[in-house]
Automatic annotation (TrEMBL):
Residues 1-12 have a biased composition (Basic and acidic residues). Pfam families: Glycos_transf_2. Keywords: Transferase. Residues 1-41 are annotated as: Disordered. GO terms for molecular function: transferase activity. The keyword Membrane does not apply. This is Family 2 glycosyl transferase. It comes from Halosimplex carlsbadense 2-9-1. It comes from the Archaea. Residues 52-207 form the Glycosyltransferase 2-like domain.
């Protein structure tokens, strides 16, 4: 998949070269996505100008300023940001002050928000994160580099480095979800519920997403089972700013159910 995409970008570069000779070409048609045009200008590699960072935001006024500042600092203000917001606090105002695009949505759960957010991204590389200051935006350059190496989905693995800041119950639960998914997938995955990933946008657009609390696991499992190039990279995980929006018991049960359902559906495809 990644190889095909890289080949596509090379073709565009050749068309542009022909154009420089004054011959008429379809370079404009070939470079349907402006991100592809930009990628050719930078030697076929995506830059942060090609990245949209997306998140669901639900009463995160204590954290959102720091998260968006980090995105700006790490990407030099070049990544754009989409927040799908269900807050009744100042979160959306703070997001807009930071230049983010805010899509308002009644709060209906994590996956309903994040699905809308990934589908609203308008650049060729889509990064998800939580809006709680737990995920290391410093890892964005590494994530982008892996996408440029041909990886379709880069998944931040919190569990392997220890996730000391995660509540112990959640850590054990996340280990169990990863074991369950690994057994069903037939290959070892380490963190199925991480909120921080980078996707080539085609991946999120080509697949129909059905899960809510289990969306994060679904966003890993379906691409894996369809043969996309998915890679986990270890990331540090910080203590949350503000209150969690997920009930660990009910949420955990929903995630386990989603993993089984999605694996069975993918096997039957
Ligand atoms: N818009 C919207 N965002 C949500 C909803 N539920 C959770 N979120 C956001 O999704 C992200 C993940 O939720 P979080 O509470 O961090 O879950 P945890 O990481 O499992 O503790 C956070 O940025 C939340 O603000 C919702 O119903 N609507
Ligand atoms: Mg979180």
């Amino acid at each position: 998949m990644g190889q095909l995409q890289r080949d596509g970008r090379t073709d565009v570069a050749e068309d542009d070269a022909e154009n420089a000779d004054g011959r008429t070409t379809n370079a404009g048609d070939a470079a349907v996505e402006s991100g592809m045009e930009r990628a050719t200008e930078t030697g076929g590699e995506f830059t942060f100008d090609d990245v949209t960072v997306v998140m669901g935001t639900y009463n995160e006024e204590a954290a959102i300023g720091a998260v968006l500042d980090d995105v700006d600092e790490v990407t030099d203000g070049r990544a754009n940001v989409v927040c799908v917001d269900g807050s009744d606090d100042r979160t959306p105002e703070i997001a807009r002050e930071h230049g983010a695009r805010v899509i308002e949505q009644d709060p209906q759960g994590y996956g309903v928000a994040v699905r809308e957010a990934v589908l609203a991204a308008d650049r060729p590389v889509v990064v998800t994160t939580d809006c709680d200051d737990t995920y290391p935006m410093e890892a964005l350059p590494e994530f982008l580099e892996l996408v440029n190496d041909g990886t379709d989905v880069v998944s931040g693995d919190r569990i392997t480095p220890g996730a000391d800041a995660m509540p112990a119950f959640n850590r054990q639960g996340n280990r169990a979800f990863a074991l369950l998914a690994s057994a069903l997938l037939g290959e070892r995955v380490h963190d199925t519920t991480t909120g921080m990933r980078a996707y080539r946008r085609e991946v999120v657009q080509e697949i129909t997403w059905t899960e809510n609390t289990g969306l994060s696991a679904e966003l890993l499992v379906r691409p894996l089972m369809r043969g996309y190039d998915v890679r986990e990279v270890p990331i540090e995980y910080d203590e949350r700013t503000g209150e969690t929006k997920l009930d660990p018991l009910a949420g955990g049960a929903a995630i386990a159910k989603s993993i089984v359902k999605v694996c069975l559906e993918e096997r039957r495809r």
